[in-house]
Amino acid sequence: TLVTNHLPTAELQALDAAHHMHPFTTGDELNAKGARVITRAKGVYLTDSEGNEILDAMAGLWCVNLGYGRPEMGQVAARQMNELPYYNTFFQTTHVPAIALSAELAKLTPAHLNHVFYAGSGSEANDTNLRMVRVYWAEKGQPQKSHVISRKNAYHGSSIGSGSLGGMTYMHAQGGMPIPGIHHIGQPDWWAEGGDHTPEEFGLARAQELEEKILELGAENVAAFIGEPVQGAGGVIVPPSTYWPEIQRICKKYDVLLIADEVICGFGRTGNWFGCETMGITPDIITIAKGLSSGYAPIGGSIVSDEIAEVINACEFNHGYTYSGHPVCAAVAMENLRIMQEEDILSHVHNVAAPALHAALETLGEHPLVGTVNKSGMMASLPLTPHKESRAKFAGEGGAVGYMCREHCFANSLVMRHVGDRMIISPPLVITPEEIEVFTKRATQALDATY
Ligand code: PLP
């Protein structure tokens, strides 16, 4: 049988369950209920095989910043496929899409970040970072300066390297992670862990855990610290204002490189081009992926400082991926950046989308089930709680209430993801106030049904 959109949903689901292994999903879940089959999408709406129009308040996986169905992106991809579908960037070759994108990224990033090493994804880019910071210190005569410090509950990818950098215990429980030489300190999650401290006190204390860890390991052994400006998959944890300046101070004091993982925060998600600008920090490396191409093509990378590039370029860095700087993906990313600038998406976020989303979140925050509103630009989370004032958690298996709420969202034609008992919101940046009204209505219905 030809497998097309025209097959009945049940048949597609059966074939899917029989042959397709899904990330972060059990076969039992697929067999019991079947996966939702998404057939097309336009703007902020997905259409499923039953004809439902679903508002995607997650922009896919935090990536479809421009919204779905922009014809220019497909046209550029088709043109590039016909002109030069593939060539590599190894062994002293290059091509125009990789050159153009690198020069453009150098313009958009903070002044000292001017050099891009490409990957196919955020995971691969963080693997690059892990090796690159170690090679950097080795080339500078300090091969022992190789330990990397990250945070509990961080998400940096799924490969062994990036999953080890990440701090997800349920991932570490499988397949031999974390690898040696990676250490995790606490996260600046005041709402869940701050106790009686003020957010400012707590932010400072959590940042100072970095200093304690550096002193424990010996500064001469610590290569880098990695963190997401706002932790995304950990539950949209917006750090208190005291956190990042203290982290930056400590990194400088001990000559520890600072890696900002901008895979979610980059390209407008927090309201600026990069989350490090929103948090007022100056990293040595930023990781990019997702919003770089608005998810239309798989591409990621590491953008590194002039100083790191000088050291790495002086040796042969024995690292790279067949698809590093893939011409079709690079051309699509370039088109994404062109549209973002031509349509001034950041002004739309600043003047229209973020104010409307924040107002909507304040309304949802009044719901008895919602403990607080965590937000930065166009990413947010609503922790669900049985008791707002005491910031209490639901008893038993964490995440059951969040899961229930996600299911009610689905039933109401809305995608909100749940991380434990937190509902996550990260819509396309182009979302309009009218669409945000639809979001609020559907989200309220889902919260009411969960309550
Ligand atoms: N880093 C962060 C902050 C992420 O959120 C993700 C994915 O969600 C990754 C890295 C991994 O990116 P990818 O899934 O493209 O490998």
Short description:
It is built from 17 helices and 15 strands.
Mean pLDDT: 97
Poorly predicted residue ranges: none
- If you consult CATH, what is the topology of the largest domain? Aspartate Aminotransferase, domain 2
Compute the number of helices: 17
The structural domain count equals 2
CATH architecture of the largest domain: 3-Layer(aba) Sandwich
Radius of gyration: 22 Å
* Structural classification: alpha/beta
* Spatial order of strands in the largest sheet: 4-10-9-8-7-5-6
Largest sheet: 7 strands, mixed
CATH-assigned homologous superfamily of the largest domain: Type I PLP-dependent aspartate aminotransferase-like (Major domain)
User: What is the terminal-to-terminal distance?
Assistant: 44 Å
What ions, cofactors and ligands are bound? pyridoxal-5'-phosphate
Q: Helicity level, as a percent range?
A: 40-55%
| Structure summary, number of beta strands | 15
Beta percentage is 5-15%
Globally, the shape reads globular
CATH top-level class of the largest domain = Alpha Beta
